[in-house]
Design brief:
Blueprint (H helix, E strand, L loop, with lengths): L2 H7 L4 H20 L5 E5 L2 E5 L6 E5 L6 E6 L5 H9 L4 E3 L3 E5 L6 H12 L1 H4 L8
Antiparallel strand pairs: 1-2, 2-3, 3-4, 4-6, 5-6
Helix pairs in contact: 2-4
């Protein structure tokens, strides 16, 4: 983990840090399964992950909403609209930008995994209906 990101995450409460580590591990697992290399950096003060051919994913938490964390996707893609269509009953969304994950609820690993797979293959899927989901 890059030093800047590790330092940034230390400011989070323990419950947030646990969820961020779950998400980060899942991001790397998904990318590795597709033989993709992850470029990790801080964007807008939040951990950001990008793979070649994909759309970036950011992880966020805000003190104003301490009970949730966010998985952000590029707002000018069809990602959130597609995820909302396919996973409306399983996930909570914030506008056209983010999946909202409760820190108290079970981690929806399989659903988030699928969302990450689609985001990391966005450039080859963007012309498909519902991104091929």
């Amino acid at each position: 983990m890059p030093h800047a990101i590790a330092e940034h995450l230390l400011a989070y409460p323990a419950s947030v840090l646990l969820r961020m580590h779950q998400l980060r591990a899942l991001i790397y697992e998904v990318a590795t399964s597709k033989h993709q290399q992850v470029n990790e950096s801080l964007k807008w003060g939040e951990p950001s992950f990008h793979v070649n051919g994909g759309s970036p994913v950011r992880l966020g938490w805000k003190a104003s909403t301490p009970e949730v964390c966010y998985v952000y996707f590029h707002c000018q893609t069809k990602l959130i609209a597609t995820f909302r269509e396919r996973f409306e009953e399983a996930l909570v969304f914030s506008g056209n930008r983010a999946i909202v994950l409760s820190l108290d609820a079970p981690f929806p690993e399989l659903t988030i995994r699928r969302c990450l797979e689609v985001a990391f293959e966005y450039k080859k899927r963007k012309a498909l209906p519902l991104l091929g989901l």
